[in-house]
């Protein structure tokens, strides 16, 4: 263990760039030679192989030039917690497999629900990530709506009612794809998700939400949930939660808030007000492994009314008999779609107990401030076109070459920039599309990244962009 810890410490401290730029086929060759039927000679060889096959070319989120996806560098108390929870290997499905672990998770769920303001009947459970939390939200919303239909007892026992094809989920056009995925998994299909237009700031357009609801009514469709996003994946935009909740209340609709990304604002000393209205939600997704600087996986799903979690409760004599519930034994499996489940809560627990919520929340504030300081650098530069005013910590923009090029050529230039940066390991940036055009994206979640780092990456983007354009025009004239 000590040798392994030394190896990882040396590796992490010695990282010079976020990525070596290795391509899949280059790394694959080394894997072809591994024979898993035979063990290696000794532990040194195991470590050497680990370095060669994984550590050497891994993508390092703690490097200041990793500015791509919603991955955060992680806080040290959480790493210690990983060691503890894996060593003890508690499983959080039942009390008789976890004891105190159950209360640690429950206390964190109660704390998060209180931070949201969900009220005294709230409850929830840790999940593997935002995708699973959103799936749970759609499952509960679906069953909540179906179980109210006359003549239909419950989805859990009878399956979906005959008119399930009329169910619809309303969410903004820039919400996370796990909403569509959930609809498919739940037997409703992608087509059950109606995209609501977003405004210039990439927030759900309320007039369009109203239009979609009116259309649903006119067509006899059954809106089963409105999914608002607090921190969209690309733009970090927060939907108008207060207004959406008023519409949901008026229409008696389930409101889910996907705060996988923006959930970190719950402990922000500066920007908590951006989540105003989240307290009206029927359910909420929070990803601690994004804006709470926790190792993957660490996430939660919360509901306003604890009884709704009954839609996923199933009793087994060997595990969680009903009699235990009657006796008051807290078996968390009654609230989860998983059975065996990691004690991920311990990471957040040790982090809060070591650092405190304010210090943790300040890390997220710091990257939001960094994003706001970077925005004018991009906005004022004629070589860049920025797609939005940032609200959290992403910047979506593209390089515009000096030469007059077609839209397709500008797209190709931006794809090439991203590849060139990744290949050189100079920086890892993300890419996305806005109105069908290719953009670059910074997701800033590393408090160690400085404005200087970002200025350097912007210069490198311009350099690679200009180089690509020259190369292409040289090829065209050959
Ligand atoms: C807004 C939003 N919701 C949900 C998810 C899915 O979360 P996870 O990757 O933890 O499953 C993401 C991931 O980036 C996200 O940005």
In the CATH hierarchy, what is the class of the largest domain?
A: Alpha Beta
**Arithmetic mean of pLDDT:** 97
Q: What percent of residues adopt helix (DSSP H or I)?
A: 40-55%
CATH homologous superfamily identity of the largest domain = Type I PLP-dependent aspartate aminotransferase-like (Major domain)
Helix/strand-derived class? alpha/beta
Which strand order does the major sheet show?
Answer: 2-8-7-6-5-3-4
What composes the largest sheet?
Answer: 7 strands, mixed
- CATH-level-2 architecture of the largest domain: 3-Layer(aba) Sandwich
Radius of gyration: 24 Å
Distinct ligands: pyridoxal-5'-phosphate
What is the H/E order? Answer: HHHEHHEHHEHEHEHEEHEHHHEEHEEH
* Number of discrete helical segments: 16
Protein name: Decarboxylase
Family: Belongs to the group II decarboxylase family.
Pfam families: Pyridoxal_deC
Keywords: Decarboxylase, Lyase, Pyridoxal phosphate
List keywords for this structure.
478 residues; Aromatic_deC; 16 helices; alpha/beta; five-stranded mixed sheet; Decarboxylase; seven-stranded mixed sheet; Aspartate Aminotransferase, domain 1; binds pyridoxal-5'-phosphate; Aspartate Aminotransferase, domain 2
């Amino acid at each position: 263990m000590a040798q392994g810890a030394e190896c990882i410490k040396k590796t992490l401290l010695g990282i010079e760039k976020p990525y070596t730029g290795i391509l899949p086929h280059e790394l694959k060759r080394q894997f072809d030679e591994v024979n898993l039927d035979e063990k290696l000679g000794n532990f040194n060889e195991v470590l050497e192989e680990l370095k060669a096959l994984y550590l050497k070319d891994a993508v390092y989120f703690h490097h200041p030039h990793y500015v791509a996806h919603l991955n955060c560098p992680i806080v040290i108390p959480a790493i210690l917690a990983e060691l503890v929870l894996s060593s003890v290997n508690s499983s959080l499905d039942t009390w008789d497999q976890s004891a105190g672990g159950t209360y640690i998770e429950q206390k964190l769920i109660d704390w998060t629900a209180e931070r949201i303001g969900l009220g005294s009947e709230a409850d929830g459970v840790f999940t593997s990530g935002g995708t699973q939390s959103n799936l749970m939200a759609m499952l509960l919303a679906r069953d909540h709506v179906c179980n109210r239909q006359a003549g239909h007892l419950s989805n859990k026992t009878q399956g979906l009612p005959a008119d399930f094809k009329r169910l619809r989920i309303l969410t903004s056009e820039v919400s996370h794809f796990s909403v569509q995925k959930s609809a498919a998994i739940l037997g409703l299909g992608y087509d059950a998700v109606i995209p609501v237009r977003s405004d210039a700031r990439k927030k759900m357009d309320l007039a369009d939400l109203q239009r979609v609801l009116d259309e649903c009514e006119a067509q006899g469709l059954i809106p089963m949930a409105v999914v608002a996003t607090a921190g969209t994946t690309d733009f970090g935009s927060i939907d108008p939660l207060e207004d959406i909740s008023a519409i949901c209340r008026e229409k008696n609709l389930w409101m889910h808030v996907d705060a996988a990304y923006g959930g970190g604002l719950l402990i922000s000393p500066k920007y908590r007000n951006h989540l105003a209205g989240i307290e009206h939600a029927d359910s909420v997704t929070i990803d601690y492994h994004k804006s709470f600087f926790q190792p993957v996986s660490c996430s939660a799903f919360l509901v306003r009314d604890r009884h709704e979690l009954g839609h996923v409760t199933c009793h087994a004599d060997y595990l969680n008999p009903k009699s235990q519930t009657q006796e008051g034994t807290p078996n968390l499996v009654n609230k989860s779609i998983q059975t065996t489940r990691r004690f991920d809560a311990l990471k957040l627990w040790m982090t809060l107990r070591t650092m405190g919520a304010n210090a943790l929340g300040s890390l997220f504030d710091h990257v939001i401030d960094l994003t706001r300081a970077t925005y004018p650098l991009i906005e004022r530069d004629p070589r860049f076109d920025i797609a939005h005013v940032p609200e959290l910590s992403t910047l979506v923009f593209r390089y515009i070459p000096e030469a007059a090029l077609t839209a397709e050529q500008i797209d190709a230039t931006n794809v090439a920039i991203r590849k060139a940066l990744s290949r050189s390991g100079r920086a890892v940036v993300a890419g996305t599309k806005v109105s069908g055009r290719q953009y670059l994206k910074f997701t800033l979640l590393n408090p160690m990244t400085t404005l200087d780092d970002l200025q350097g990456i912007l210069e490198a983007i311009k350099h690679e962009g200009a180089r690509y354009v020259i190369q292409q025009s040289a090829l065209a004239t050959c």
